[in-house]
Design brief:
With 205 residues, this protein is α+β, with helices and mostly antiparallel strands. The chain contains 4 helices and 13 strands. It has helices spanning 16-24, 46-53, 117-120, 186-204, and strands at residues 5-7, 9-10, 27-33, 40-45, 62-67, 70-81, 88-95, 101-111, 124-127, 131-137, 145-148, 157-159, 178-183. The protein starts with a strand and ends with a helix.
Length: 205
Amino acid sequence: MAEIVLNVEVREKTGTGNAREVRRAGKVPGVLYGGDKDPVAIAVKSNEFRKALYTGKLLGHLVTLKYGKETQPVIAKAVDMHPVTDEPWHFDLYRVDEHQQITIDVPVHFAHQETAPGLKRGGNLAVVLHTVAVSCSADSIPEEIVVDLEGLEIGATIRVSDLKLPAKVSTALDPELVVASIAGSKTETAAEGEEGEAAEEAGEE
C-alpha cells in the first residue's frame, strides 16, 4: 500500500470564496475525482500537505486518503502552486483500485552524465521527453525511468525503444520517438563545418 497518508476533511462548500476561507484556516483545498462517485471537495492541513509533497512521492504516486476511519487509495495527479509564494494552492486526487491498470507520466532521469564520453568532450544532452507515459497497476508505479548514458558519444540518440522499463510496465508511445540525444557543442560543430569546407576546397584544387 502507499507510504503517504493524507488526512482529509470534507468541504461542505465550494467556489473561490470557500477556497480562500480554507487557505486562511491553514489548509490546502482540493477535489477528489474518479470512480463511479461524484467529485468531493476536500482539504488537507497545509503543513501536512507540504510535508507529503516535499517527499517527492506524492504527485503521480499511489497514496492513501484517510477520512475518519475510512481509507481510499488515490493518485495525486495535479498540484497547483501559488505563483508568488510557491506554496501549494490546490490539488486533485483520483480514486483508484490498488491493482487497477492506469496510465501515468513517470519522470525520466539520466545516469552517468559525468562519465559519458560525448558529454566529457563538450557535447550537450538535449532532452526531448522529461516524462514518459506508462501503463501499469496503481501499486506498481515506477519512481523514475533511468536512461544510462555510459559509453555514449556525440551523435548518440536514445529512443523510446531503448528505454528499460520495469516488469509489468509498458508504454504505448512510438518506439522511434526520441527521448534525448547528445549533440555536439557549437564550437565543435563549427570546427567540423570548417574541416568539411577545407576538404571540399582541397578536392576542387
